[in-house]
Known about the structure:
This protein is mainly α and 304 residues long. It is built from 14 helices and four strands.
Amino acid sequence: MSDFTSNFWSVFVTTLTLVGIIACGILLWMAGRKKVMATAENTTGHVWDEDLVEMNNPLPRWWVWLFVITIIFGLGYLAAYPGLGTFTGKLNWTQKGEYEAEMAKAKTEIEPLYARFASMKPEDVAVDPQAHAIGERLFMNNCAQCHGSDARGSKGFPNLADADWLHGGTPEKIRETLEKGRIGNMPPMAAAVGSPEDVRNLSHYVLSLSGSPHDSLRASLGKTKFVACAACHGNDGKGNQALGAPNLTDDIWLHGWGEAAITAMINNGKVNQMPAQADKLTEAQIGVLASYVWGLSNKPAAAR
Length: 304
């Protein structure tokens, strides 16, 4: 209701709500006072299905009081809680406040559970059985939707179980990614590369960097066009983790490989986003989760 730009809608909602409740009360009162002319058999004269007769009996008293109690409860609820336009209610209750209170309570309850992990090195947390179980559950609840339950990702979502990292795979970098999120932006480069044929030639040169199947003639023609990409991916095509620019020589393709996929990337660009988790998870939870993710691609080290 706080999003209203004028007071009209607040008054409209308040009026509509109160009129509806009052109308129910009036309808109940009128129904109780109305008398129906009955026959000697105490019926209204209405018959359905040949033998179903409507009797002229008043509503049961308990039923009437149930309606009355419902109306009183509705008015009391609207006085205590938000529901009448911009009126916040006498209890000043809000969904946001309820959520924040529950989250604060949950953080207080789980704090002792994470306390012993705070003083441990990330490498030690990764091999701790309890921390591993907690990290796995955190991953399933917050990361598996994009990266998969096995953390191997899919097209457009990085594989976290290999040694290929866009921004670095140290525990510190992984924690930074979890806390702040990442936005990857590959701008459209067709205008900087040249004609559509130049784009195709460049695509084959990019394929040649990783030894992927390619047209060697086109690759040789496209080599000079790679200067448009070198600012981010480096002259050797090995990428730049400071920028999040992928390594083009390792035969790992986040958005698909082949001439068509690379040509589309050069022509259209791509924007990817890893959402920040700092507002969702506590600092201790992010620490355990970062160690768990690090352990996925460092299994021999984690085992030691």
